[in-house]
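Schema walkthrough. Field components (list of strings):
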Amino acid sequence: MRPDAKKKLAAAAPKKGPNPAIIGAVIAAVMVLAVVVAIVVGNSGKSSGTGAAAQPKGVVAGDAGGILANPVPAKSNAPTVDLYEDFQCPVCGQFEKAMGPSLASLAAAGEVKLVVHTLTFLDDNLKNDSSKRSANAVACAADAGKFLDYHAAVFAAQPAKEGDGYTDAQLTEFATTAGITEPALTTWQQCTSSGQHAQYVLDTQTAAEKAGVNSTPTLKLNGKDITKTLSAPEALVAQIKAATK
Amino acid sequence: MDLQGGGRRADLVGLLARLIVGAVLIWAGALKVTSPAVSARAVNAFQILPYDVARYVGYALPLVELLIGLLLVIGLFTRVAAVVGGLLMVAFIIGIASAWARGLSIDCGCFGGGGTIAASQTQYPLDILRDLAVAACAAWLVVRPRTAYSLDRRLFG
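Field assembly_structure (string):
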């Protein structure tokens, strides 16, 4: 071989260095591992089992349904209103101010089956736990037969700034405002501080997402989403009346 | 056309493309990676994937975006990373266009957030344009992965 050709051959040979295939495989493995870890960690906090969840009084339609807010049984021809709200959602606060009294009086008259689903997704957005704590607290109030009163008390005290949330002291104040008295108050306190309905609250959020509810407030009349049609309480009352058979 | 040619100037265009795609992916991933539950709901709000699949996609997506973005910024496995990044953009464009066509009013959740918003607040055309621009940069890199200042060049020549 001529010396010149030898030099050329050496120049054409692959350079010594890390093997691209091995580096690629390692990086691919790291990526797959990261994704798997993310999924496992993401799911570890959530129990998928709903069997063990303590259900508050008045839960309708399965384990993770909303709470029937009627203080008295509704008339048999009354339409069903499913209301999805997060206690930390400012628009829900406005909705309650505008529509709450009308809905409550229709429920009190038995002219509507009012089913309230307390959602908690804003905890993840706002990075606090006020939606879950207040949803658990109102479920405990449902056990005491004071769901709507407690529900109204929370919205009446909604913080001006979204994300400020509710303190435990406030949650206890709401119980008094709602008219929960001893001995029910002690039971309510235990239920609230132990997070007795915490799993139910998580299940409610999951069930709502599965039902395609991804914002609050959402109001369904006999299963149909009519949130966008509600400009004034009169419109809501009229639609409920029209849906009464 | 000699796609691998073009010399120094084309290498610099490639560098710019790499940094654009990489930065957008890192930005999008970083804003979502700390709140995976929000990301999962944003994916679910598109109402395309079944609920459980949407959850997994929502959890994994920010990490994939971060990793691909990082690879592009340092210029390692540029072609493979650009293929993945480009396919992500195509998937996003399809998802956003589909939501738009079906009359959903959602935030794409591209950079955190997500879920239903007022119809007047939707910005589907803007989202699609942005993703198209990023996809175009990714396409350049798939065709011509040689770029200036890349780790690929350092390691593999």
